Amino acid sequence: MNIGILTLPLHTNYGGVLQAFALYYTLQSYGHNVSLIDGKMYEVTSCREKISVARWQFFKMLGLYKENHPQLQLREKMKIIIPFIQKLIPQQVPLQNVHQDTFDAIVVGSDQVWRGLYSDQLVFFLDFAKGWNIKRIAYAASFGVDDWKPSCNVAEYCKSLLKDFDYVSTREKNGIKICKDILECKAEWVIDPTMLLESHVYRDIACRGGSRCK
């Protein structure tokens, strides 16, 4: 089965990278062809970001700022971690290249994909795949907060999208309550994907990275 993993775009958050790798590794171990659906958060792509960077650079020329724009700083840091990510998760597909026939299933999670403060939350409810004939799974998805309060319109839309999911699970116990009370969806409580792997997998990664191994 061809499976795509949709999680928060990977950047300098090592925990985010490892949870994506763990899910990727686990699904591959079951014989599936797995790819990470990558949104490239560290790239400056939108008009708003480009205007923000241009404004920052202008004020920097005037001496009002000493540092580069935060997004540009992130891009510099990403130059160091990108090779590491590409070694761990070699198969990646840009979100804009994902179509109905790209995957048999899309797995959303883990990380705080449903928090909404970090990203456009509707993407992680697979609104772009509405009407597609695919399996939809949320594994260890997190709301990131105890009290999730979307607007009524957003809650209703997310509720309608979740009805098409074949399986929903959260990594926090409170997520089950949010799914039940707000989204009218049954969810299971599961462990974070980083806990799915045995310790030797992580030791192997550390050894390949040049750390001292025993």
UniProtKB/TrEMBL annotation:
Keywords: Transferase. GO terms for molecular function: transferase activity. Pfam families: PS_pyruv_trans (PF04230). Residues 13-202 form the Polysaccharide pyruvyl transferase domain. The keyword Transferase applies. InterPro entries: Polysacch_pyruvyl_Trfase (IPR007345). This is Polysaccharide pyruvyl transferase family protein. It comes from Xylanibacter rodentium.
